[in-house]
Amino acid sequence: MKKVITYGTYDLLHHGHVALLERAKALGDYLIVGVTSDQFDRDRGKLNVHQSVVERIRAVEALGIADEIIVEEYQGQKIDDIVSHDVDIFAIGSDWKGKFDYLSEYCDVVYLERTKGISSTEIREKKAGIIRLGIIGGGSRAARFAEECTYVSGVDVIGISPTRPDESPEFTTSLTPYPNIEELLKDSDAVYIIDTIETHAPLITQALNADCHVICETPLFLSPDDARTAFKLAEEKNLVLFEAVKTLWAPAFRRLLLMVESGAIGDVKAIDLACTQIPENFDNTQKNIYEGSLYDWGTLVLLPIFQLLGTSYSTCDLYEMKTGDFSTFVRGHLAYEHAIATFSAGRGIKSEGHLVITGTHGYIYVPAPWWKPEYFEIRTEDLRETKRYSFSFEGEGMRYEILEFIAMIRTHNLNNRLLSHDDIYAISHIISRLDSGDTIRI
Ligand code: CTP
Q: Which of 13, 90, 193, 372 lies 20 to 30 Å (CA to CA) from residue 350?
């Protein structure tokens, strides 16, 4: 008996899939179809799949072409499957031509002509429509953001309008330059704002008033009043206002929070973390003060604290060091009824950027830079019991937050499922204390 194997995602099953499966089956007597697991698709950067693995398997099963269906869960599994199922032929569409030649060591490799004019990607885009996204701001972040958008289906970056005269987009990105923000807003359904915090409130208001959904760099606002006004306007206009904090959507960070919440280290008693950076050619006497300490790191340093301990702290002491008007370093202590959190935020100063979450049964250690998490450990008294976890962080990592932003627009959901409005009010309250000089100066 000749056994044939083929693999795919089979999202929103279409006639291209059917034709491929029929031809694969005709190559032998027995067809095994490998359907990718949800996690495997996410791990390989395919973030836009609409159906779950169960729905996709059911659809393939219902065709009655496959003799056996298996789930593909990891890189390299194809070799294991071919050997363990004693497969004679590996078949796949011609879009993969050459990519699986390495399997010819184990069986025959056949590339079948792909059906023209149809793909899951196209069906997904037709179903949902394309969101036209403009970028306000400039620099390398704009280019990285635009590149990351290509991994999320249904978004088209239409162009860029700089906010500063020295940020000519011709030099920083290959995106279409717009003469001004008004023109860009006219052509956009959504905008990404990259600029320092003091510009956010007016730019967000302008974008919302032009009926654009907004994803804006972190932290969002200088004060809770600004935050309340903007969220009220977004709600009135039925538009999404989203803070771009890529750490929050990184798979490792999410898993870490879930582990702590499910009791992996007992009760959380202390959180210690730092975020510091010395940018290239840094000169804090020349700098915009809104690039200093909490103006830049505000959300990130408070994120693990507010996620794990909530925003109802009893006291918050902020110690600050300034160079002239520039806030170089802030250390904050937040006391809760049963826990304490300490954070450091610095610009033009460097420290160990790790995160330690102390619990009654053990602690979690995330090495620097913890805000780009890929790996963490759960440690207890007995170091031999240390558990290690690693999760890939695809590309620049922005694709996860872009995906979430787009999903919120599509489902008309104005509430971010991981970062509430109250969290953002609490963060902007602490930033407003820095802004009004309510700190202990060192
Ligand atoms: N396939 C095909 N003809 C098409 C689309 C897909 O022959 N028009 C084949 C692929 O080459 C692959 C299998 O069907 O062998 C499963 O592909 P999959 O990636 O699930 O489908 P796509 O439509 O290509 O999905 P996407 O757009 O998400 O990449």
A: 193
